[in-house]
Design a protein that fits this description.
There is one protein chain. The protein has 14 helices and 17 strands. It is α/β, with parallel strands linked by helices. Strands 2, 3, 4, 5, 6, 9, 10, 13, 14 and 17 form a ten-stranded mixed β-sheet that branches. It has a three-stranded antiparallel β-sheet with strand order 1-11-12, with helices on one face. Strands 7-8 form a two-stranded antiparallel sheet. A hairpin with a 5-residue loop joins strand 11 and strand 12. It is globular. It starts with a helix and ends in a 21-residue tail after the last strand.
Length: 490
C-alpha cells in the first residue's frame, strides 16, 4: 500500500514507518472493546476521603513538596469553535426567533466577562442588531473568539478586569502547584499559530501575578508533535491520498500529548483541562482536594519505593495489603507461583508511573468513567473508559455504564519517576490496542481517521492508578459560551 515516495514522505515528516503500518492494520481489524467487569464505586476502586483525611493528606503534601519540583500540565491547544456552534448558525441565518442559544446569549450579554471589550466596537451595543453583535464577537475583524483557543477568551469578571482561563490557571498554580523553591511551573500545550498570542498574554500578566503572590512563574509551551499524527485511510483501508497523490496525516487527539508529557521533568505533575476553572470565590474546594490527592500520591509512592528499595519478604501479605489499601490486583495464578516469582510480579507491578484521578458523582455528563477492566493475565485494573470503548450492544456492559456512579472530570496528579529517581519512558506504559476510529471527509471524499489511545485512557493504561471521589464543585467546564452565564462562572 505504501510506495517508495510514501516512505520518503513519512520519514521527512518525522513519522515512524512501523507505526504507520501498524495504524493501517488497526484500521483493518478495528480496536477491541475494553473487557469492563464492573463500574468502580466507593469502596470498590474509588476512595472516599473524610474531612480529617483531606486535612492530613494536605499537610503531608505540603511537607513533602519542600524538596520536589511540582508542575502543572494544561492541554490548551484546542480552538473554542465548538463553544460557539449555535452562534455561528445564528450569524449565518440571522433567525433569532428560532435560535434559543442566541436568545439566551443576547439576554445575558451584560453578564459576560467580555462585555466591555465587545461594547467598545459599538456606539451602543444594546441597540445594535443582534447578528452584528455576535459577528463582532466571533469574526477575525472583531474579537476573533470564533477562532481563538479557550485559554485566551475572557471567562470571569473581576473588579480589576476580566480573566482568561490561562490567568485562572496561574492563580490555581500558586495555591497548589508551587514547588519547594517557590517557583510555579506551568506548562501549556498550544497550537503553533496561537503561540505568539499566548506569549503576549503571559508577558502582560506574569509580572502582576508574581508581585501579587510573591512567587516566580516558569511558563513553558509545547506543540503537539507532527510525528504523532496518524494516517487517514479510505473505506477500503488504503491510504487516503490528497489530490497531488501524497498520503494524508491528521492530528491524533489528546493521546498524542503523551509525548509532550514524556518530555517533562518533574516530581509531581498536575493535569487539568483548560476550561475547568472558576472565579476565586469558588476555588477553595479545588485547592483542598488537589493538595489532598497529591498527599495521597506521595504516601502511595513512598510505600512503593520502600518495597522496591528494601525488598519484599512476604509477597502474599504485601499483595493482600496493596489490594486492600490501593486496589492493586495480582494475576489469577499468583497464589500458585513460587515466592521468587511472586516477588518478581509484585516488583513489575509496582515499578510503574503512578496517577491519582479525581472522580465526581455521575450527573449525566458525557465522557469517560472509572471501571474495573480485565487484563490478559486475568487480573483486573482500574481504567478510565470512554463510552466508545464499551460494547453498548452487550446489555450487561451497557448496564454497567448506565448505572455507574462516577465519571472522569480530568483531575489527575502524576508521578513519572521510578524509585531510583529516573524518568519512566511513558510510551512503554501505553496500551496500543486501544484507540478510536472515526468517519470524516476531506474535499468531499469520505475517509477514516484514527485517534491515539486517549491521554487519560489507553495512554495511561499500564500506570498504577487510584481513583478518589472529589466534590462536584471542582467540575465546572465551559462547553458552550452560555455556560459562562452560570452562577459558578459569575
Amino acid at each position: 500500500m505504501l510506495n517508495e515516495e510514501d516512505k520518503i514522505f513519512i520519514a521527512e515528516r518525522g513519522s515512524d514507518l512501523s507505526n504507520v503500518e501498524r495504524q493501517i492494520e488497526n484500521f483493518k481489524k478495528g480496536f477491541p472493546y475494553l473487557d469492563v467487569q464492573r463500574a468502580a464505586a466507593v469502596g470498590d476502586g474509588i476512595i472516599h476521603l473524610s474531612e480529617a483525611q483531606v486535612e492530613a493528606l494536605t499537610k503531608e503534601y505540603q511537607e513533602a513538596k519542600a524538596d520536589k519540583k511540582v508542575l502543572k500540565f494544561v492541554p490548551a491547544s484546542g480552538a473554542a469553535t465548538r463553544m460557539f456552534k449555535d452562534l455561528f448558525a445564528f450569524v449565518a441565518d440571522q433567525n433569532l426567533a428560532e435560535n434559543k442559544a442566541a436568545q439566551v446569549f443576547m439576554e445575558g450579554l451584560a453578564d459576560f466577562a467580555f462585555y466591555d471589550k465587545l461594547s467598545s466596537y459599538f456606539e451602543d451595543v444594546n441597540a445594535a442588531p443582534a447578528h452584528e453583535v455576535v459577528d463582532k464577537l466571533l469574526s477575525d475583524e472583531g474579537m476573533e473568539y470564533g477562532s481563538l483557543p479557550k485559554a485566551l477568551l475572557q471567562f470571569h469578571p473581576y473588579e480589576k478586569g476580566a480573566r482568561t482561563p490561562l490567568e485562572e490557571h496561574f492563580v490555581e498554580g500558586v495555591h497548589y502547584a508551587q514547588s519547594g523553591d517557590g517557583v510555579v511551573h506551568l506548562h501549556f500545550t498550544v497550537s503553533p499559530q496561537h503561540l505568539p498570542k499566548f506569549e503576549d498574554l503571559v508577558g502582560k500578566v506574569k509580572p502582576g501575578f508574581e508581585s501579587a503572590f510573591g512567587v516566580t512563574f516558569d511558563i513553558t509551551f509545547s506543540q503537539q508533535k507532527a510525528s504523532t499524527d496518524t494516517i487517514a485511510v479510505d473505506h477500503a483501508n488504503a491510504p487516503f491520498r490528497e489530490e497531488n497523490g501524497t498520503i494524508l496525516f491528521r492530528p491524533a487527539g489528546h493521546g498524542a500529548l503523551l509525548e509532550n508529557l514524556n518530555d517533562l521533568d518533574a516530581d509531581i505533575i498536575f493535569i487539568k483541562n483548560i476550561d475547568n476553572v472558576v472565579p476565586d470565590r469558588l476555588k477553595a474546594d479545588t485547592y483542598a482536594y488537589k493538595q489532598a490527592l497529591a498527599g495521597l500520591l506521595v504516601g502511595y509512592q513512598n510505600e512503593v519505593f520502600g518495597l522496591l528499595k528494601e525488598g519484599i519478604n512476604d509477597p502474599v501479605a504485601v499483595a493482600k495489603q496493596l489490594d486492600e489499601k490501593y486496589f492493586l490486583k495480582t494475576s489469577v495464578g499468583f497464589a500458585d507461583l513460587s515466592k521468587d516469582e511472586q516477588v518478581a510480579e509484585l516488583k513489575t507491578r509496582l515499578n510503574r508511573p503512578i496517577r491519582i484521578c479525581g472522580m465526581v458523582k455521575n450527573t449525566g455528563e458525557p465522557g469517560g468513567g472509572p471501571f474495573w477492566v480485565k487484563e490478559a493475565d486475568g487480573s483486573a485494573s482500574l481504567q478510565i473508559a470512554e463510552t466508545a470503548q464499551i460494547d453498548l450492544e452487550n446489555a450487561e456492559k451497557s448496564a454497567m455504564l448506565k448505572n455507574s456512579t462516577h465519571f472522569n472530570p480530568v483531575d489527575l496528579i502524576c508521578a513519572t519517576k521510578d524509585y531510583q529517581g529516573k524518568k519512566f519512558d511513558l510510551l512503554q506504559y501505553r496500551d496500543d490496542e486501544t484507540g478510536f476510529i472515526t468517519s470524516k471527509s476531506k474535499n468531499g471524499k469520505d475517509l477514516k481517521a484514527m485517534e491515539l489511545p486517549g491521554l487519560w485512557n489507553g495512554a495511561m493504561a499500564k500506570w498504577n492508578t487510584l481513583f478518589v471521589e472529589v466534590p462536584i464543585s471542582t467540575f465546572n467546564p465551559v462547553k458552550t459560551v452560555n455556560d459562562l452565564l452560570k452562577e459558578t462562572h459569575q
